[in-house]
Give the backbone structure.
Amino acid sequence: MSAREFNFDGLVGPSHNYAGLSFGNVASFNNVKSASNPKLAALQGLAKMRALAARGFGQALLPPQDRPNFRLLRSVGFTGSDAEVLAKAAQESPVILACAYSASPMWTANAATVSPSADSADGRLHFTAANLNNKLHRAFEHAQSARSLRAIFKDEQHFAVHDALPGTPAFGDEGAANHTRLCKDHGSAGVEMFVYGRSEFDTSISAPKKYPARQTLEASQAVARLHGLSAERSVYIQQNPDVIDQGVFHNDVIAVGNANALFYHEQAFADEAGALDQLRRAMAGVGADLNAIRVDTAQVPVADAVASYLFNSQLLSKDNGKMALVIPQECQEVASVAAYLQGLVASGNAIDELIHFDLRQSMRNGGGPACLRLRVALTDAEAKAMHQGVVMTEALYHTLVAWVEKHYRDRLEPADLADPQLAIEVHTALEELSRILGMPGLYDL
Ligand code: SUG
């Protein structure tokens, strides 16, 4: 069966801010408490969606989440009216208030892990919402992620949306950021590659020393079970703990795959040769040859990969049989990366085009092009069965730009999170958005 990949980009919410909440994510830490521009952030994201849709790539969006998360604030003892809850949280624990206001749902690569119907035992497309339990500010996203996915993919004949795994350290799950599907083409059975940072129970597996490993082997295995994946076509690979300690908090900061190509840094995996060998053997079973595009440390040091987000790019299949690499503007500004990319497109390998975007507002929180999107390969029947209101078109783009212009501020400082008016603005904007997208009841307001 033929299938087409859709990228579901996170629409940036009206309270996009920099709170320095992600220990281990260098950009988030470096930009702590600087002023953000929610309007510009949303427009930058929309520009990417529009441009890729105009090029003919499958493009849709996932809506922002409701902010602040009053349920979180009330569950930890802040009481009273909404305004009182905000005032008390701002006074007693600004960091918890920032968690309740986190911008992080915009990085939809972390919303869920996705297995297309060609890979699953029951022939349905499966999603498991990611529990993101490593960070307080992300640990509550899964409820709305599952709700949004169920609203879009509600036809149970085609789709299954699983709730998040138990929210304990043993099942730390960060979704598609640590999952790559390699295949001959999107419609036929593929190999699902799960990259984990540590194991809860296997003490022979080394863990990073400085920064947390967010994804466990046990979580990856549980997702594969829920999705009904075959053992021969599921590959588990350990991320190199040393690169986690250098700021590679997800595998999608050091590797990206598409179709039969894996574009990766030589230091990405704990055992590079073993990883490639496992992938080659599994891919032979689906009639695909691995095209391993390796970037050496001598060409691009890990620090430059982290600074530029070279690997947090999107690899998109084009009609000419080649692939485009969608990169953030920062890749042109880091000398080693810019030089490497010039050679890459000239090399005659699978990647023959670079498409770059200004995503600085997202990048300053450690989110590049690949963080901003959740990949979903859909057959024609599935593409018809999903909710159509989220598919990016010129008309939707213009409607959303007008909506952003109307509701978003162009400057948000940490102190603004205490402003009760901001919460009201966000609610008003999201109520209107659910009407624009044709998704009544999207939010549990
Ligand atoms: O989880 N940043 C996100 C960035 C996620 C990037 N996603 C992928 N690599 N797929 C994170 O670290 C920062 C929020 C703040 O500090 O305000 C944040 O959550």
